[in-house]
Design brief:
86% helix; mainly alpha
């Protein structure tokens, strides 16, 4: 049986709110770990987005046919890369400050 981390955490929280002491201890232990994992995954997704945009941009620049749509996609990717890199720097700084990695 597969269960998502959010569903598991919700279940443990429900048990803890019903008065289960072990569930409360487990919830207090797991919640920060899950939050850290979510932040790490968000950083990974941002890196994947940057890499994907860079591949698209390179493919368009190296392509034989070049249409208006290609030019629009290239501009969007270039702007997206700039914004994503700024967000990534902020996300990484917050993660490092909070978790010291």
């Amino acid at each position: 049986m597969m269960i998502s981390s959010n569903r598991l955490l919700d279940y443990v929280f429900t048990k803890a709110s019903e008065g289960d002491v072990r569930a409360k201890i487990t919830y207090e232990y797991l919640r920060p770990l899950f939050e850290q994992g979510e932040k790490k995954e968000a950083i990974g997704r941002k890196l994947e987005y940057i890499e994907r945009c860079e591949r698209i941009r390179k493919a368009i620049m190296g392509g034989a046919s070049y249409s208006k749509e290609d030019e629009k996609m290239k501009r969007n990717c270039e702007r997206g890369i700039v914004r994503a890199k700024e967000q990534l720097i902020k996300m990484q700084a917050e993660y490092d400050a909070e978790y010291g990695e």
